[in-house]
Design a protein that fits this description.
253 residues; alpha/beta; 9 helices; 49% helix; globular
């Protein structure tokens, strides 16, 4: 089977590093023209765009700001002419200890929910309207987490809650917009070796992160990316609404 995305313009959020970087590079390798979104890591994003080949561009937006989502979407459409697939990958994992002050607790929840849920929700809405206006459908791929289904440690309840809501959002899109030829999928990685996960590894140790896996090594971003390419390619449209678990056999160990 040949996965061909050469006729697609694809926006990948949080694409300067980690899972997003691997997704952007894999999509480009399949022929897609990729919009590489970033927030602070400009040089890293520009390097990803360069490696994605001709046509790819790095585009900045702070997704913790309400107006940034529309500005990002409009910028991509302006530069590429259209968006065929939206990949919502950007996310944060901010600890909110139970003994934190109420103000700090609120801030952690507000930031996490905005980046992990509100920004994807706003971008999904923009993508749906864009797909409907073009009248030829499109695909949305939301990157959630194993934590959406099994929860997380007490200080990361906000992360788990935001990702669980993202799953429900994706399923709602799939259920309600299939007649418009709009497909939506969730990819739910387990513990993945990324910069964002390093704080957990430093605190608890890599052995703790691996202890409930069926495989003997942590998932890497490159393990996640091929599934996103498959979903974007159109070969899996009848799996719309599905969640694809990529967690090294965590659930079956």
């Amino acid at each position: 089977m040949h996965l061909d995305c050469s006729d697609q313009a694809i926006l990948v959020t949080g694409a300067s590093r980690g899972i997003g970087r691997a997704i952007a590079l894999a999509l480009a390798d399949a022929g897609a023209t990729v919009a590489v979104h970033y927030n602070r890591s400009r040089e890293a994003a520009e390097e990803v765009a360069e490696n994605c080949g001709e046509g790819a561009e790095a585009i900045q937006a702070d997704l913790s700001e309400l107006s940034a989502c529309e500005q990002l979407f409009d910028a991509v459409v302006d530069r590429f002419g259209r968006i065929d697939t939206l990949v919502n990958n950007a996310g944060v994992a901010r600890a909110a200890p139970l003994d934190a002050s109420t103000e700090d607790w609120h801030d952690a929840w507000a930031q996490t929910l905005h980046v992990n849920l509100r920004a994807p929700e706003l971008l999904c809405r923009l993508a749906i309207r864009h797909f409907q206006e073009r009248d030829d459908g499109g695909r949305i791929i939301n990157v959630a987490s194993r934590a959406a289904f099994r929860g997380d440690t007490p200080e990361y309840m906000t992360y788990a809650a935001s990702k669980a809501a993202l799953v429900a959002l994706t399923r709602s899109i799939a259920r309600g917009l299939g007649e418009d030829n709009i497909c939506a999928f969730t990819v739910a990685p387990g513990f993945t070796r990324t910069d964002m996960a390093q704080d957990f590894i430093d605190r608890y140790g890599e052995g703790h992160a691996r202890k409930d896996l069926a495989l003997n090594e942590l998932t890497t971003p490159e393990d996640v990316a091929p599934t996103v390419v498959f979903l974007a390619s159109g070969h899996a449209d009848h799996a719309t609404g599905a969640t694809i678990d990529i967690n090294a056999g965590s659930y079956v160990h």
